[in-house]
Specification:
Length: 145
């Protein structure tokens, strides 16, 4: 449903948020290892997140990526998805047809619309704070072992 870049962007944002709560900045290398993504690809994703003011990049010996603690709760998954994949996930056809709408629906249009609307609700109501805290408390995990 999401592009690989978007999946990595969400995972990276959660990892950065968790570490930001602990007062730590994380390096691109740490992020790419944690989310199991190639470093060069991770760097491009991080650039998009910085450009969209979702994460901060701090240069220098003690640099890395962070999110201001008071901003973590305000960042919704929908912001990350939009920064990386745009808003096509809310508008695209379930079968990938160029023309598919209420007036000219594809065979799965109405069923897919329900799923898409539910996904939109989840993305707009889920913030990084709750996901980072789930990781921190061990309720959820970013890595598979």
């Amino acid at each position: 449903m999401f592009s690989k870049a978007c999946e990595y962007g969400i995972r990276a944002s959660i990892f950065i948020a968790k570490n930001s709560y602990e007062g730590r900045r994380v390096s691109p290398k740490e992020i790419s290892e944690e989310i199991n993504s190639p470093q060069a690809f991770t760097a491009k994703i991080l650039q998009a997140l910085v450009k969209n003011n979702l994460i901060n990049s701090v240069k220098g010996a003690y640099g890395g990526f962070e999110i201001e603690k008071d901003k973590i709760a305000a960042i919704k998954l929908s912001h990350i998805v939009k920064a990386i994949d745009g808003d096509n996930i809310y508008n695209g056809c379930g079968l990938g047809l160029e023309t598919c709408d209420e007036n000219h629906p594809c065979p799965v249009h109405y069923k897919f619309k329900e799923i898409r609307d539910g996904l939109k609700e989840m993305l707009e109501s889920t913030n990084l704070e709750e996901l980072a805290l789930d990781i921190k408390t061990g309720i959820a995990f970013l890595k598979t072992y």
